[in-house]
Amino acid sequence: MAKSASSIRSVSRTLRILEVIQELDGATITEITERVDIGRSAVYNYLATLEDEEYVDKDGEEYHIGLPFFGLGSYARNRVPVYDTAQPQVDRLADETGELVTLFVEKNGLGVYLYRASGTNGIELDTHEGEPVSLHSTAPGKAILAFRPRCEVDDIVSEHGLPAVTSNTITTREDLHAELDAIRERGYAVSHEEQWAGLRSIAAPVTDDNDRSIASIGISCPVHRVDDDRLYDDCVNALLGAANVIELEYNYA
Fold it and tell me: Does the pLDDT of residue 22 top 90, yes or no?
């Protein structure tokens, strides 16, 4: 999103420093200085303040995100209305399928993994809760876009583009709109190695009583382990059932 005229530069710089530390999974002053448009001494001063307040930890020459952010993140997640309703269903679906199951929401035109649960065979992805990703390259993201007005989808594409994450990623508006039409027709989205090579995912939208998506839940599994019969028969039925329960509880409880 564009910064407002009232943005405070020091706050923006602090947040950018924290983002770099997260992106690099720990960063030195030199690495931060190379990525943030301020001098080395200023970066040091920002980090010293954050360390004093325990919002970053120093390990050797590297700085890491501190534990106080865990409490802030948990608080923010608990404020998302659908979380309390969806979390038990995500856990149940992970136990039932044995796979990785995620709860996904849209924020400012990007997708955020709000919660995930891993079954007995669930894979570990190089991502974490709270990390923003493109909507068009994931099954949960496409499930959300399919139940938004076309003008809103076009605004998101205009702002964030359609970057090719893998060779299978959708990269044109025409292909994206055709895909979203198909998702609305069948009720769930599919990603065939569009975000991660070797990974297949399916996702169902969670909609409000106006049929607008407020979240989605997805199942992810490696290509080599799941054939079409299991993916589309067992997993889709379980997924749609869980999404339906969440919608009923969210909209009418």
Answer: no
